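User: Can you predict the 3D structure for this chain?
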Amino acid sequence: MADYDVRSLQPRDFDTVMSLEQSLFGDNGEKTLGPFYVRLCCDFFNETCFLGFAGGQPAGYMLSFVRGREAYCSTLAIAPAQQRTRLVYRFVQALAPHHLADRPCRVRQAPYAHGPARPPRTDPQRGVNMSTVEALPSPASLDSAARAAVRALGLVTTISCLLVEARLGASSPGAFARRAQRAARTILAAHGIEAASTGPTPRGPVVVVANHVSYLDPLVVSSLVPCISIAKGEAQRWPLIGPGLGALGVLFVRRGDAHSGATALRRAWRALRGGAPVLNFPEGTTSDGCGVGPFCRGAFGLARLARVPVVPARIVYQDDRVPWYGGQTFAPHYARLARVPRIVARVYFGESMEIRQFDDPADVAHRARAIVASLCAR
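Assistant: Here is the predicted structure, written as structure tokens:
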């Protein structure tokens, strides 16, 4: 009886997978996976892509992209002689992390690239079985540690997809803003965060100025308004998060660095000229959300220069575990927050403020802060 083993795909397995792909598909005259797709799986999705062995020899692979609660675009290819063996079970077992072992799981037939869906192939002469494995968890049924692990995996996968999309996709301000909205909605949904708004939703080139409570703030606003955010420069150095923010077109500003601030404002001006809203948190730091700190003038000078309105906004969370302030480290705070089953966020948008050519940005900042504070009190 053959000994079956499955392990995570590694970058060095690229040639092995391509060889298997050729023997299972190419030799039968069928289309094979492109090398870019295989390289993507080997380099970026090796936590959910696997190589299987029978008797120590490569006998199949599973390539799967996982986002949030679902595994999708999954390809399971197994050599004909091993198709009705425990190797199939080992692949499915490998895809379901150990902390999700009790989750209900369904194997769903995937449609062919051409024509309607057909039964999974098990013909020894054809040599491949393709299916989509879709996990169907109930978030309420997961314990907090499992919930946090699933959400962290979804975050990593979403950011990995963003990096690829940013490299291959358009780079106009509008494209960045739409990408930010899609990503924000995906991440919030995966983390059980519901975002809603009150007041007129901003449209077109405007500068949205809001209070700052948490790293969730840009996601919450972006999910409602496709926009380009301005963020602190430290976030650019965060592993994985920094590149992910860059893929969304986020403009980074290093505190105390006038050149960095000027560069970000110039890029924000270009984004506004390109028709994309720009999101800024003029407090310059996060707070506990109980009040609104003084506003810096930079974003208001930008609005005057670009001749666009300013839209004040107030972000409110119905959970006192959300605020991230006072020197808290990101990873421990995120680990605790990811355990929360459900979070409700609401953004209160005020009426747009027109800025005249001779208005003092400092005065406009003071008026905008007063409006945000009044939204706070509603």
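The domain at 4-137 is CATH 3.40.630.30 (Aminopeptidase). The radius of gyration is 24 Å.
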